Amino acid sequence: DLEVINNAASGDSKQLKSDGVEMGGAWPGQAFSLQVDEVLFHEKSKYQDVLVFKSRTYGNVLVLDGIIQCTERDEAAYQEMLAHLPMFAHPNPKRVLIIGGGDGGILREVLKHPSVEHVTMCEIDEMVIDVSKKWLPKMAAEFGNPKLNLFIGDGFEFLKAHKNEFDVVITDSSDPVGPAESLFGKSYYQLLSDALRDGGILSSQGECPWLDGNLIHTMNVFCKEIFANVKYAIGSVPTYTSGTMGYFVCSQVIKMTFSSESLWLHLELIAHMVQFTKQIFPTVRYASSVMSTYPSGSMGYLIAAKNERDVTTPARTLTSEEVQKWGLRFYNSSLHSAAFVLPTFVQQALEGK
Ligand code: SAM
Known about the structure:
Layout: E1 3-6, E2 15-17, E3 33-44, E4 49-55, E5 60-64, E6 67-71, H1 75-89, E7 95-100, H2 105-110, E8 118-123, H3 126-135, E9 148-152, H4 155-159, E10 166-172, H5 186-195, E11 196-205, H6 213-226, E12 229-236, E13 244-251, E14 254-259, H7 267-280, E15 283-290, E16 298-306, H8 320-325, H9 333-338, H10 344-351
Parallel strand pairs: 7-8, 7-10, 8-9, 10-11
Antiparallel strand pairs: 1-2, 1-3, 3-4, 4-5, 5-6, 11-13, 12-13, 14-16, 15-16
The structure holds S-adenosylmethionine.
Keywords: Polyamine biosynthesis, Transferase
GO biological process, one term: spermidine biosynthetic process
GO molecular function: spermidine synthase activity
């Protein structure tokens, strides 16, 4: 007579008798179930249905609108990949933004990087943070960290006021139903692009390639219109429907501006500078502006851009001793590159085939 919690995404956290498995919702025709030992918390917040239960075999489990968000047993699989793929792809991430992330797991992983000076987090639902502090203490362990700047509000609205600020932005959102719907559209990714500094990197939960092919294709197409480099990685997370999770990792162009000389006076020098800069950077442009107090009344600038960071190769690697010291259970430096090697059906899903 034990109950099961069903991951059928019906919009409500259903507690079903073990002989009644509900089908339908976001992923019709299938359901994933966990046996419940005890319901620890169940209330409706302003935004969603929030449930925490103690499972028989996966520890405490957070469920939002009927969909499992994380379990104590397998959370490392998701948190470490979503956090460390962009963080290790960046050579020196100092300022990091997390959108969503109310359970605190991504925050915990980001703060393991010694280069990080500030983490800003914008989570819409304070109730998720409160229940995580109480029932998922290992995930929520860093909410008291002085490097954290926590905002309660909508991530989409928050981004409108933040431009050119972050080295890494991680979107740890729920699925595109309910409050997270706006976090899966092109306009959100345009805001993300504006919020990143030159050479910045983002990661976002990229749903399940077995189930969400159309969404993944749409996201891939618009991300490519916005970012220099768009990649998709996969990993296993047993308690997400179908057991496979995808991650979008995108990077900005790295731009550098050098002051140059006036074209009127130093044509040869400028031609020479353009020539050798082109040997280093694939894209080089010259711009000039009026400067009334400079000889000839103008000033020139060389703008060089490296097309992309190779996000599939870690810019910093961990030895196996460091992996242990960091307490990592899933991510390591070899897995970083391997995660971007995709099965054919995932490549096809991304291309819309
Ligand atoms: N790993 C999970 C998954 O993919 O199932 C998601 C983790 S959970 C921490 C996602 C969080 O995103 C929730 O706490 C939810 O409240 C938050 N969220 C949803 N929509 C949001 C929005 N528009 N702005 C900020 N946070 C949002």
